[in-house]
Amino acid sequence: MDLVGACRAFVKVSERGSFTVGAAAARMAQSVASRRIAALEKHLGEPLLERTARRATLTPFGRDLLPHARRLVQLADLLEHEAETAKRRPFRLAVPDSCPPGALARLIAAARRHELILEPRPLPPAERAERVRVQEVRAALVAVPADEAVWTVPLGLAQTAEPSGARIHLETLRAGRTDREPPRRVWLQPEDEVPHVRDPLGRLRDAVGLRPAQVRSASSLAAATAEVLGSRDLLLCSAAQAGELGLCWRPLGETALVRGYDVAATVRADGDRIRTLLGDDVAHCLGADTAREARG
């Protein structure tokens, strides 16, 4: 039995004193209202209304139950209202601040198709994780090692001039004794200031004999790109980023560096929603080729 629907019919008919008028107020057919009230009376074990040709009046039992039925209907209406409000409440998602505006716009549009009002918050890696921890956002795309990632983004080196080979080897940046120009540098953007990217690159720098200052960190992607545009320096980035910046990109020759991402959320279901509903759109934002199937 639809207890809420039956109570709604009972309340409206008792308030109007008529099955016809009460059913209309409850937005249901008179026959439906009559069946629901009859089912409610059977369920409760006593008649609620006395029926005459023109009127429906409360029985003593119905008079006692009416306030409780009215309260149940009010609570049901409140629940529906709160559910609609919750659907319209923004879902704040911390994303890399390197995500292009166009890709973020497509992500927002895709979320709307799933009745999710997404509000991206572009932030660097450490801040994204912290915002989830203090519950300032419902979820975040956090940086993780490739073997723990749902989405992976291969990294390489980009420069203003077209490279001669299919790959760029870091050892080719080693300064010679007779070089008159400053040693070429590799610039890291904040998105790659994470251990699983920064540390392997530092070890490779030392292994091929580069100077410590030849691998540098910039305060922003714009600052790193400016260094590259004004020199022979290189930017560590994804192929998608290089294309947006008008740079020529090649993968690293000595090793494979990869950005890895997963979703961190205060409620597990929120993370699952992002992975399952918006996986491919998130991949596009990150510059990943596809979204890997979410682990259980």
Walk me through the topology:
Blueprint: H1 3-16, H2 19-25, H3 30-44, E1 49-51, E2 56-58, H4 60-88, E3 91-96, H5 101-113, E4 118-123, H6 125-133, E5 139-143, E6 151-159, E7 186-188, H7 195-207, E8 215-217, H8 221-229, E9 234-237, H9 239-245, E10 248-251, E11 257-265, H10 268-286
Parallel strand pairs: 3-4, 3-5, 7-8, 7-9
Antiparallel strand pairs: 1-2, 5-11, 6-9, 6-10, 6-11
Keywords: DNA-binding, Transcription, Transcription regulation
Family: Belongs to the LysR transcriptional regulatory family.
Protein name: DNA-binding transcriptional regulator, LysR family
What would CATH call the class of the largest domain?
Alpha Beta
**Shape, please?**
rod-shaped
List low-confidence stretches. 291-296
Order of helices and strands: HHHEEHEHEHEEEHEHEHEEH
The assigned CATH architecture of the largest domain is 3-Layer(aba) Sandwich
Mean pLDDT: 91
Output the CATH topology of the largest domain: D-Maltodextrin-Binding Protein, domain 2
By DSSP, the count of extended strands is 11
